[in-house]
Amino acid sequence: MTSAAPKSTGLAPRLSELRDAVELALEGKPEVIELALTALLAEGHVLIEDVPGVGKTTLARALAKAVGGELRRVQFTSDLLPSDVLGVSIYDQRRGDFVLRHGPIFTNVLLADEINRASPRTQSALLEAMSEGQVSLDGKTFSLQRPFFVLATQNPHDAAGTFPLPESQLDRFMLRIRIGYPPPAIEARLFLDGETDRVKQVPGVLEPEQFTALQAQVSRVKLDPALATYLQAVTTATRTSPLLALGASTRAGMNLAKAARARAMLRGRSYCIADDIHDLAVPVLAHRVRLASHVEGYVPTRDETEAAIRDIVERVPVPL
To answer: Are 308 and 291 in contact (CB under 8 A)?
Structure first.
């Protein structure tokens, strides 16, 4: 094996520059930035569940700026309609025909803020776009820009006025992460600086076409057969564990494999190691499973579900 990153595009070394650029806006959160870039590089999407004011919008804006892409933000509310996201055909009297007005989903980075405040009907408007990179409107199919990345934020499930995301919607998110508060020293410096828009400091590292070329290289990162067997064992363990009522699907396992390849590429390797799978298991799988409960009406917390996945993964032998 070699430790060299894929060289087909000559752009892989720029990934470290990309990480550094995003960290200018979101200091002290290298793990969060790596997870977000992992999903973006693997053509996945990210769901963030966290308290307000910790940098969710900042992360989305910084990612878009660093890859030279366009960002659009949609505030999901109970009265938001699918057409508010996808677009709508409007009759143009001068042309005597209907003209399609694209919605905000036609962008590179879509920030879906408080996604679970919208109705299930509006939530489902994202399904085709997130899984196939296209939108169907008025009997026609429109391809979305590339790269296309959805970063959605979610209120806690017990918050007032929320609609739980169905399993089909949750499954479209490659990773679920949380940002958390910044380290004390960095937070104190932010108070002193008084700078509210740190995204201004983020340079454009790549063009969208260049980042799309990098995404195409992820599948070339080597996943050893022994690691594929390990990943399959992890997936199977979630299905047989008494801790879970619903285990991970085959698509969840495939997402974990692709995320592991992207993480390896971000770290300058042309091959995966067991840590890539082990470390990504919780953010990739925890939101896709259902914790077993013997109490009717009890809704397990996120921490309990993540702890269950962590416990299951720790019991699966790692290949030597």
So the answer is: yes
* Cα separations in angstroms, 82 against 33, 76, 121, 137: 30, 10, 7, 11
Q: What is the pLDDT of residue 176?
A: 95
3-state class of 46 per DSSP? strand
Containing H/E element for 135? strand 134-137
User: pLDDT, tens digit, for every residue of 51-104?
Assistant: 888 899 999 999 999 999 999 999 999 899 999 999 988 877 787 777 788 899
Phi-psi group of 47: left, alpha or beta (phi > 0 → left; psi -120 to 50 → alpha; rest → beta)? beta
DSSP three-state, residue 160: coil
* Cα gap 170→165, rounded to integer Å: 6
Contacts of 151 (CB under 8 A, 6+ apart): 36, 45, 46, 48, 56, 59, 60, 63, 109, 110, 111, 112
DSSP tag of 76: -
CA angle 130, 134, 137 (to 5 degrees): 115
Beta strand 46-49 pairing with 175-177? parallel
- 272 touches 223 (CB < 8 A): yes
Residues 6+ apart with CB under 8 A from 174: 39, 42, 44, 45, 46, 255, 258, 259, 284
Residue 274 CA to its chain's centroid (Å): 21
Nearest in space to 109 (alpha carbons), one of 199, 179, 198 = 199
Whether 107 and 145 have beta carbons less than 8 Å apart is answered as yes
